[in-house]
Design a protein that fits this description.
Elements: H1 15-22, H2 30-37, H3 39-43, H4 46-58, H5 70-79, H6 83-104, H7 111-123, H8 139-155, H9 161-181, H10 194-210, H11 214-234, H12 245-266, H13 277-282, H14 285-289, H15 311-321, H16 341-349, E1 365-367, E2 372-379, E3 382-389, E4 391-393, E5 405-409, E6 412-415, E7 447-448, E8 456-468, E9 472-478, E10 488-498, E11 508-516, E12 523-529, E13 532-536, E14 539-543, E15 547-555, E16 563-566, H17 568-573, E17 581-587, E18 594-605
Antiparallel strand pairs: 1-2, 2-3, 3-5, 4-8, 5-6, 7-12, 8-9, 9-10, 10-11, 11-18, 12-17, 13-14, 14-15, 15-18, 16-17
Helix pairs in contact: 1-11, 6-7, 6-8, 6-16, 7-9, 8-9, 8-10, 10-11, 10-12, 12-15
């Protein structure tokens, strides 16, 4: 169920009101103002030392501006690979940001190289990357505008007048004018995904920092608020969940938080987008998808451990919403995942370097509208976590993965969802579902009558029930509508977590129950893992660092032995560091209409 926008009046300001709020000339980033007045205070911060150690790794490269040209740009259309152009493109912005941070700390010798980077970036024919060709403004170009605006704002009149003029003209031509005057050409405007949050927030930040005409600035802010209201209302379900996963939650919402705080400061607190029940609800999502301190459910285009939270941004969001679960992501181990100036400044200036007492993540959670359930059992102080998804097969960053689930034991995924495939030209085209990462071949879901799940919103799964008691936790999902198999009239997946004791040795019971119209069809049951596996007859052992998970086929009697397929070719193509294994067994056709599958899973501690 999508949120209907109740009580979201924080976005509804007229142009006239916004002008009146901005006219006082409040500083958009007071923490930065204070830091620029006394850089020695920043130098003493532990966060600064962490950032400087990261910058050391790139500092020898800073004075050599990475080359960009038409050959690199066009290579994407020939090979489908993005890195040839995007790597030097991103390095330019990263090295510029690093140089600016060093300049803030008093290293004035970096001024010349900063100006050279500004000119080099402004001379780029387009800030839109090849994979987004055809768009006037994309994630990358809006990000570029924000970076240049922040650099310009920090350097002020220290930048050469001619360079300043070129920067302003470039941002005006590439971003400001098309944003204000060609709305219909921006597919992301008022869209229901992270593009809305990132592009609108980045562009609005640039306006806050650079635009001198208050009426025009207010017009841009009004435009951004109108679109961001749609993001908050429509990109998330009623329960605060998003099918894009935690990675894109972090990307989109982080930019939204940065803009919201700058707008709040610029308007003297008159506009505060974060202090709403709706944002607080959205802020709960990561804690409900968390599997350990560093891993999250890898549904959609994310991965087990690719999410890096900026503790400064999370701390601001926690302060604004009071959502205590965000303390799980304010950690001593946190480091900026990308040395962009926005990330660096919020890491250093917004985070007080205190690690908030983290909440116990080992709690059950249900997201009924998103269609995800997480159940947790602690047996002998060893948490076993099950997380399973329903939903439909036309979600944002969709995979055909209805019924996919993860079994995590003490921080390690034994049965997993493989997450994102390689971001190349084909992956975001009609060929997307050729990839095992996007189609259901690479997920722990069955093949029925030799068919994978079908794509499209009409193919869906339902959360039927969740039951929780002292010794048993169970979730049931109906998968029949995920398949275009006419003879299949029910596919009921039920997974039970049992609390181990002297009498109960099987920690997890897996049940799939099929009902066909008349005779049953061929069935292939599938379990996906990155870990080492051995199979013998009707038993499989999945080997973890501290534990093993032993799978035993109990029903039906006619099931084949386990087979293990290593997806080496697919993994090599997708540039993954580990080999994905597809554990299967088959059930042949029968004259019966009902097939009950039961697999017992036992957790054993390794010696």
């Amino acid at each position: 169920m999508k949120y209907n926008g109740r009580n979201n009046k924080v976005f509804n300001y007229s142009h006239k009101q916004i002008v009146s709020f901005l006219i006082s000339g409040n500083h958009p980033f007071p923490e930065l103002k204070s830091a620029l007045q006394n850089p020695s205070k920043i130098l003493k911060k532990e966060q600064t030392k962490i950032v400087l150690n990261l910058i050391k790794k790139v500092s020898p490269k800073i004075k050599n501006i990475p080359k960009l040209n038409h050959i690199l740009y066009n290579s994407f259309f020939k090979t489908g690979e993005r890195d040839a152009y995007e790597k030097p493109y991103n390095e330019r912005r990263e090295y510029l940001s690093s140089a600016v941070f060093l300049y803030i700390l008093g290293r004035s010798s970096y001024k010349d190289i900063i100006e050279k980077y500004l000119l080099a970036i402004c001379k780029e024919e387009t800030w839109v990357v090849p994979c987004h060709k055809g768009r006037m403004i994309d994630l990358y170009s809006s990000n570029t505008a924000r970076i240049l605006a922040e650099v310009f704002f920090i350097m002020g009149d220290k930048i050469d007048e001619k360079v300043s003029l070129i920067v302003r003209e470039s941002i005006e031509e590439k971003i400001f004018d098309p944003y204000l005057n060609q709305t219909s050409k921006h597919k992301w405007y008022k869209n229901h995904n992270n593009w809305n949050a990132v592009c609108n927030s980045d562009v609005a930040i640039a306006f806050l920092l650079l635009e001198k005409n208050i009426a025009r600035k207010a017009r841009a802010i009004k435009k951004a608020l109108d679109s961001l209201e749609v993001y908050i209302n429509k990109a998330f379900y009623e329960d605060g969940g998003t099918s894009e996963g935690v990675h894109y939650w972090n990307y989109g919402l982080s930019m939204f938080v940065i803009f919201s705080e700058m707008l709040k400061s610029s308007t003297g607190g008159k506009i505060d987008l974060l202090k709403t029940k709706r944002v607080k609800q959205i802020a709960t999502l990561p804690s409900k998808m968390q599997l350990s301190s560093e891993t999250f459910a890898s549904f959609s285009d994310t991965s087990e451990s690719s999410v890096v939270f900026n503790p400064g941004i999370m701390q601001k969001l926690l302060q604004a919403t009071g959502e205590k679960s965000l303390s799980n992501f304010i950690s001593e181990s946190s480091k900026p995942d990308w040395l962009g100036i926005s990330n660096i400044l919020r890491y250093v200036l917004w985070w007080n370097k205190k690690q908030v007492n983290q909440n116990n993540i080992y709690k059950d959670s249900v997201l009924p509208d998103l269609g995800i359930v997480r159940l947790v059992n602690e047996s002998r102080k060893t948490p076993a976590i099950l997380i399973i998804k329903a939903g439909h097969n036309n979600e944002n960053h969709n995979h055909n993965d209805l019924g996919s689930y993860i079994i995590n034991i003490d921080g390690e995924n034994f049965v997993t969802d493989p997450g994102a495939g390689l971001y190349d030209k084909d992956y975001f085209s009609a060929k997307r579902y050729n990839s095992i990462f996007a189609n259901s071949y690479g997920h722990s879901v069955p093949r029925v009558n030799n068919k994978l799940q079908s794509k499209g919103k009409k193919y869906f799964a339902k959360l039927i029930s969740t039951s929780i008691s002292k010794y048993k936790k169970r979730v049931t999902v109906e998968l029949v509508d995920a398949y275009s198999v006419k003879s299949l009239i029910s596919l009921n997946r039920k997974i039970i977590l049992l609390k181990q004791n002297a009498k109960i040795k099987n920690s997890i019971i897996f049940n799939d129950e099929y009902i066909f119209l008349k005779k049953s069809s061929n069935i292939e049951e599938v379990f996906i893992t990155w870990l080492k596996v051995t199979a013998k007859n009707k038993e499989v052992i999945i080997y973890g660092k501290k534990y093993n998970l032993i799978l035993t086929i109990k029903q039906p009697d006619i099931a084949s032995d386990f087979l293990v397929e290593e997806l080496k070719k697919e993994i090599l193509f997708n540039k993954k560091p580990r080999i994905l294994k597809r554990i299967t067994f088959n059930i042949p056709k029968t004259n019966k209409s009902k097939v009950s599958v039961k697999v017992n899973m036992r957790i054993e501690k390794r010696n």
